[in-house]
Amino acid sequence: MFPPDPDDPEPTAWEKAVSAALGVPDAGTVMLVHSLGAITALRVLAALPEPCQLGGLVLVAGFVEPLDALPQLDRYLSAGVDVERLAGNIRKRTAFRSGNGPVCAANSVG
Fold first, then answer.
1. Which of 17-21, 54-58, 86-90, 101-105 has the lowest mean pLDDT?
2. Measured between alpha carbons, how far is 14 from 107 in angstroms, rounded to an integer?
3. Which of 49, 60, 85, 108 would bridge with 34, disulfide CB 3.0–4.6 Å?
4. Is 105 strand, coil or helix?
5. For residue 104, what are the CA distances in angstroms to 3, 37, 60, 100?
6. Is 76 left (phi over 0), alpha (psi -120 to 50) or beta?
């Protein structure tokens, strides 16, 4: 299942799609997410009942703050997520930044 409309994303639809694909994660579950999927996955994880565990999370060119190059995503990004709280529930975390990309170089998670 793929989240709907990446050009005009609606948070609830994306979060429902990710939640349905994820199911109930456990210490053996690893998520790999890219770009706007990073904040979506983090929001889904934050909404899970405590205690929850995730074996691993790989973020590729993710971002959690508005991007100057993509102001059309500001509405989607306006509701943040407490990444520090989530860190304790994720055994292994890896982030690949977009260090020199024209879109999200300065705002990458990592």
1. 101-105
2. 21
3. 60
4. coil
5. 20, 14, 11, 8
6. alpha
Q: Is residue 15 within 8 Å of residue 31, measured between CB atoms?
A: no
CB 38 within 8 A of CB 63: yes
Per DSSP, 64 falls in state S
Is the entire prediction scored with pTM above 0.90? no
CA distance 32 to 69: 24
61: phi > 0 → left, psi -120 to 50 → alpha, else beta; which? Answer: left
Q: Kindly report which listed range (1-5, 24-28, 82-86, 102-106) carries the lowest average pLDDT score.
A: 102-106
